[in-house]
Amino acid sequence: MARSRSTRASARPGSRDRHGRGIRSAVTGPHLPLLHTRADVFDMSVASAAGYLKDLWPRELARVRFEVAALPMGANPAGFVERWSVVAAEQRIVLYRLPIERLARLHRDDELHRRMMIESCVFRAVAELLGKDPWDLAPERFRHF
What top-level branch of life does the organism fall under (predicted)? Predict the structure, then answer.
């Protein structure tokens, strides 16, 4: 006689209660902050830089979508790895996380410099879309006198 599956699992579909031990909690526990992966930090950096630029250029960037992908789809025959692509007809900017993170030659590899690298790629991609110099996007941000 074949064993039948427990009806308990079908009574609560989609439940994560394994073996009656309760619902799983975060790996870090209730007293520590949640873990942030490199992908999460990258997404947050892109979102904050894009939000900053959308506040500065509301008319020009109102319909622009910012997307994050791991890698570019096709190989470039010249051997150049794209960090971003701009599709002006669709008002879309795609930033490629792995080339930006792994091909950066930072003089100091810490959280601040990695974030600055990500933000500079966002600025350069937006500048390419708008046909401007990246330094002209937020000139007051870089004047410290």
Answer: Bacteria
79 three-class SS: coil
Hey, how many other C-beta atoms are within 10 angstroms of the C-beta on 68?
18
Backbone angles phi, psi at 110, to 5 degrees: -135, 175
**41: part of which helix (H) or strand (E)?**
helix 38-56
Q: Which residue has the tokens 């031990």?
A: 21
Residue range 18-35, pLDDT digits in tens? 666 666 666 666 776 766
Strand-strand pairing, 65-69 and 84-87: unpaired
Give the whole-angstrom CA distance, residue 44 versus residue 111.
13
Domain coordinates in residue numbering, the chain:
38-135
Please give the class, per CATH, of domain 38-135. Answer: alpha beta
